[in-house]
Structure formats: C-alpha cells, structure tokens
Design goal:
Layout (H helix, E strand, L loop, with lengths): L7 H19 L8 H15 L19 H17 L14 H26 L6 H15 L2 H11 L2 H16 L3 H12 L9 H13 L9 H5 L8 H24 L3 H8 L15 H18 L30 H21 L7 H15 L9 H11 L3 H16 L11 H23 L5 E2 L2 E2 L3 H8 L1 H14 L9 H28 L9
Helix pairs in contact: 1-4, 1-5, 2-3, 3-4, 4-5, 4-7, 5-18, 6-18, 7-8, 8-11, 9-14, 9-15, 13-21, 14-15, 15-16, 15-21, 16-17, 17-18, 17-21, 20-21
C-alpha cells in the first residue's frame, strides 16, 4: 500500500491535535489516582536502586514488578528524569509516596508517552490518499484514539501507560499494511516485551507472517497442497530464517540477561501468576461474568428451595473475587480450559488469514477479532483490556458502516464498564463528562464520514432499534448503581451487587458486539473499503 507524504496542512493538523489533546490531559493532573500510581512509583524505585538481578525478586511493596523487561527498562530511563522532580520517590521504602512533584512527574510522563502514540498515528493516517473523505477519516482517527474515553480514564486518571504501549501496536499495524513484514514483526516483538498481554493477538501475527512472508504468493495448489493452502516447496527458508533471527534477537535482548542469571522461572512466575483466579476483583464484562452470575443465581435459588450447597459461602454476592475461586454449582474453570476455548474461537479468523493470504484488509479485522476472543474467554482478564479491542476497532470504524455499528455498541459499553475503576465521588462528574463527550463527538463524526443515509434510532446512529434500547438502558443502570443501591440501603448486605450487575449488563453488549464482528469477518466478508456506504 502506497504511503502518502505528510503535507504542511497535515503537519499543522497534527501539531494542533498534539497541543489540544495534551492541554486537556493537563487539566487532569490533580485528579484521583489508583494504586497503579504507587505500582509505577515503586517500579521506578526498584529499577533505579537495585541491580537487574534483583528486579524480579524485590517485594518490599506488595506491588511487585510483573511486567516484561523492556517496561522495566522504560521505568529505569524515567527514573533519571524523576530524580530532578523529587528524588524521594525513588526510595523503595517510601511506600505510597505521592508528593506534589511526584504526581506532576508521573502525570506528565503519561502525557509525554501519548506524543509517541500521536507520531505512530501520523504514520498510519498517511496510508489514506488525501481525498476529502479521507481527510475526515484521518482527523477522526487521530482525535478518537488520542482522546479515547477509555485511555483518558485508565491512563490519565486511574494511571497507566497504555497510550505509550499502543504506539508499538499502531506502528506494527501500519507496516503490515505496507507489506513491511520484518519491520512489523520488529515492532510487535518490542511490544510483547513491554506488556505480555498482547500475546492475545500474537497468533494473528504468526499466521499472517508465516503465510505471507515465509511462503510465496500466487502459486497453484492441487490435491493435498490445496487442502493445506500452501506447497511446502514454496517455503522460503531465507525469509523464515530472517524472521526468526529478528524475533529471537528482540526476545534475546529482553530475556537473555535473566536466562543467563538463571532467573527465567522467577520472571515467568511474575508475568503469569495463574493463582490470581479466573476473574479480576472488578469483573471484566466478558463471558465469565455471565458464568459467575449464573453460579450465584443458582446459589440463591438453591438456598430458597432448601438445598445445601458445598461452596455456598464462596459464591456469596457480597465480595469481590481476587483469588482462585470455586464455583458452587457450575464446574470450576482452569487456565488451560480458557486457553483451549480462546484458541478454538480464534481458529476461524486464523484459517481465513491462512487461506486468503493476498487480502491485506483481513489483517486488522482478524487482529481485532482475536483481541475480542481473548477478552471474552481469557483467564483473569482485567476490565482495562477492553482497550485492546476498542483501539484497533477505531481504525476500522471509518472503513465500513458495519464496523461503525460494532464500534458504536462496543465503545459505549466498553467505556461505561470502566466506570467502577473511578469510584471516588469527586471523579463522578469528570468520568461522565469524558464518556458523554467522547461518545457524542465520535458518533457525530462517524455519521458524517459514512453519509446521511445511515439510520439513526433514538438519536444513536448505525444501530438497530433493540441495540439502541439496550444502550439507553445504561441510564437506569447507572442511576441504580450510583444512587439507588444507596437509597435502598444495600451497601452492607450486598456491597458487590453494583459491580456484578454492571459487569453482567455490559457483558451482554460485549458478547453481542463479538457476534456481530464475527459475522462481518466470516460471513459477510465486509472488509473491503469499497463497501463503505
């Protein structure tokens, strides 16, 4: 795909976007921050004070280092700047230290990280050819990603560095769209060594790179080779070696020192703590939220019918799940079982990538579908992982009306599901304002991009009437969880109920969005931009 040169007008637009988005984020400097703020302060202290051999053993704080080595080195680099703001933040013993200068540095570091995201988006939008409609698409992508409601709530209030991490994903997607396979693999390998949660979408890279880079295209297959989709004689050993050397070099640079020191198992135990349980304390809005809810409903029903359940106390509605849990009625779920379900659900997209290698437009939708599947069926999924779907889906939403429909449903539901992260009363107006402004602006912009012929139901474009009613149901849901639960005096008896019904309600929308997206990719094959209304 040809890359369009960045014009002076583009540069002015990008500079304006950088100034506006950064200025808005600066307004959130003094907002609430979660324990993740202390997590990253502690990692600054660990990496700046201790030798690398002790990074993954230090446990003075309960928030131990559990990200891959590249992120640890990222914290190490940041610590040199942090020293000039407040060197006290770099003391390991200063638990929960949050001076004004510490807060200022941490917040500004996230904003600075988002500037790298902007640069990666600049490369991505240059793939468009400069037509008037494409100018609107480009501007929408820049703003909708940089001011994504979820990224603002998670990074600039709750506190994380997801915007910086998505830089590498956008770079990788861009180079894959241009058939720069090795460069795309390079960026993605770096990303995996910054945050291993992106392993969820690694199968897409493996299949796409193997089929498109390591095997020759447009060869005729007959008989058995037609069943496989390739002829083994068409395998390019040279390309396979180049790809393998590049990926292994990145992983060797990251993991090599720990393997050399005999700490690889310790590193793995930090990166993959499977003892944390099937669900996070705040249930992600996925299939397991529904599964948990059915188990708890069975407990209530069984108790009222006089049945004695062995694990009834475990399945209580009154507390969050923060460790391995046992179900009272339904079968217990192991990490291996979730892995099998996840991989199985990915297979349709992976098979389509394998058997249709020349369709470049399949890569991004397949990546998004695999992110969908991993969120829906993954083990101990954090609610914040919904951003792994919403960000690439934002790039797709400008291509077709069908993708815009999925984006409309998922962005509203996914961002609403993040509300429990910002549980302080002072942040209530802020999160509502961010949510409403992003939703309104993004839907109006998409409506203009796709044309006035798009249907609008109850003020919501792209969706069907039943989807619109479901989305409008978020209003009474929020009123109950924020006010009604308190008025009914259920805080002591059922403190976890607002989280449960929020996750359960939002999980329905996430599952429906996944089904719609699956249909687009597998049945409708609606990946070609020419089908845009």
């Amino acid at each position: 795909m040809a890359e369009r040169r960045c014009t002076w007008k583009d540069k002015k637009n990008i500079l304006a976007v950088a100034i506006v988005t950064s200025s808005l984020k600066i307004l959130l400097l003094n907002s609430y921050h979660s324990t993740d703020f202390e997590v990253h302060r502690n990692w600054l202290a660990i990496t700046s004070n201790l030798p690398i051999s002790r990074w993954y053993f230090e446990e003075t704080s309960e928030w131990t280092l559990d990200y891959p080595p590249f992120f640890a080195w990222f914290e190490y680099v940041l610590s040199y700047v942090a020293y000039y703001f407040d060197k006290q933040m770099l003391l390991i013993k200063n638990l929960n230290y949050a001076s004004n200068n510490t807060v200022l540095f941490q917040r500004l570091s996230v904003i600075a990280g988002d500037l790298f995201l902007l640069l990666s988006l600049k490369r991505y939008v240059q793939l468009y050819n400069g037509k008037e409609k494409d100018e609107n698409r480009k501007l929408f992508i820049l703003i909708a990603v940089l001011l994504n409601a979820g990224l603002i709530m998670v990074d600039h209030i709750h506190f994380q560095y997801n915007g910086f991490l998505f830089t590498f994903l956008i770079l990788s997607i861009t180079d894959m769209q241009k058939d720069h396979y090795l460069l795309s693999a390079f960026w993605f390998s770096i990303l995996l060594n910054f945050k291993h949660i992106f392993l969820y979408i690694a199968p897409v890279y493996f299949v796409y790179l193997l089929r498109n880079y390591c095997f020759k295209r447009n060869t005729t297959q007959t008989g058995f080779t037609a069943m496989l989709g390739v002829n083994i004689l068409d395998l390019s050993i040279a390309n396979l070696v180049k790809l393998g050397v590049l990926v292994l070099s990145v992983f060797g640079l990251s993991l090599g020192p720990f393997i050399y020191m005999g700490q690889f198992n310790q590193l793995l135990s930090r990166l993959f703590p499977v003892k944390r349980g099937l669900c996070h304390a705040y249930w992600a809005a996925n299939f397991w939220a529904v599964y948990n809810s059915f188990d708890k409903l069975a407990v209530i029903t069984g108790s009222r019918l006089g049945f004695s359940l062995k694990n009834e106390q475990v399945a209580s509605l009154t507390g969050g799940l923060v460790a391995q849990q046992k179900f009272a009625v339904l079968p217990n779920i192991s990490p291996f079982f979730t892995a099998v379900i996840t991989v199985t659900a990915m297979l349709p997209a992976l098979l389509k990538l394998w058997y249709q290698p020349c369709k470049r437009d399949l890569f991004l939708p397949s990546l998004t579908l695999c992110a969908f599947v991993s969120f829906v069926f993954g083990y101990h999924v954090h609610e914040k992982a919904i951003l792994m779907i919403i960000i690439p889906l934002t790039l797709l939403s400008v291509k077709t009306v069908a993708f815009a429909r999925v984006f409309t449903i998922l962005s509203i539901i996914g961002h609403f599901a993040l509300f429990p992260l910002l549980h302080e009363q002072a942040e209530t107006p802020i999160k509502i304002l961010i949510f409403l402004l992003f939703t309104l602006c993004s839907l109006v912009s998409l409506y203009q991009i796709h044309g006035s012929s798009v249907s609008v139901i109850f003020g919501i474009p792209f969706v069907k009437w039943y989807e619109a009613l479901y989305l409008l149901g978020l209003f009474p849901l929020y009123l109950y969880t924020s006010l009604g639960h308190w008025l009914l005096d259920f805080q002591q008896r059922l403190p976890f109920l607002p989280l449960l019904i929020t996750s359960l309600y939002c999980s329905i929308g996430v599952l429906w969005s996944w089904i719609l997206f699956y249909r687009i990719l597998w049945i409708e094959d609606n990946t070609d931009e020419k089908k845009t209304t």
